[in-house]
Amino acid sequence: MKYFYFIVLLFTATCIAACDNKSQCPQTNCPNDLDRIREAYEQGNWDIIISIGDTLIGEDDPMNISIIYAEALAVNGNHKKAIDVLNNKIANTPDDYYLFQTKGNIYYLIEELDSAIACYDKVIDMRPTYARPYISEGEIYTIKGEKQKAVARYLEAIRLFEKNDFIVETEYFCNRILDIDSSNVEAKKYLEQIQSRRKNLPLDAF
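The chain above was modelled as a monomer; its predicted structure follows.
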């Protein structure tokens, strides 16, 4: 797929935390399965994740295995089942914005861009301080040739990055904006601030 590698990066950001808290799992054999899923995820072994996911997900899914399971299904080409898995999970936990982010990523992967935007908009409504959906929409609007919307979404993410002192991310997406609109005043202002700060910091601070 044209945007495959970008989507894999998006999935990494939303999914890797799903197995962080083993203590919540009620099944005695679950830690071993979670270790297998963690290892398979790191190795990109989607078939193992799918085989385990078939037995672990359901209403009793405190570890949110559904997210990683859906990702594995999507990467293996079973996009419909991936969306179905997420929809079933959303029906039980409609306030989990990671589910909508992952669902948007899958729509992005299969190039259903308007559906992806709808999912990312839901994430923004639920968690406006989460930068990832703004970036995702910026990428989509860039692809669609809607440059003003792309810049607006990147700027939303940059404001969050800047507020949290994420200098590398701020600089990167400012440059993305300037690739789209070389005269963008706000992006230039952020870059000037970064350059000014670097002049006053030791070389090993970055």
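DSSP finds eleven helices and no strands in the chain.
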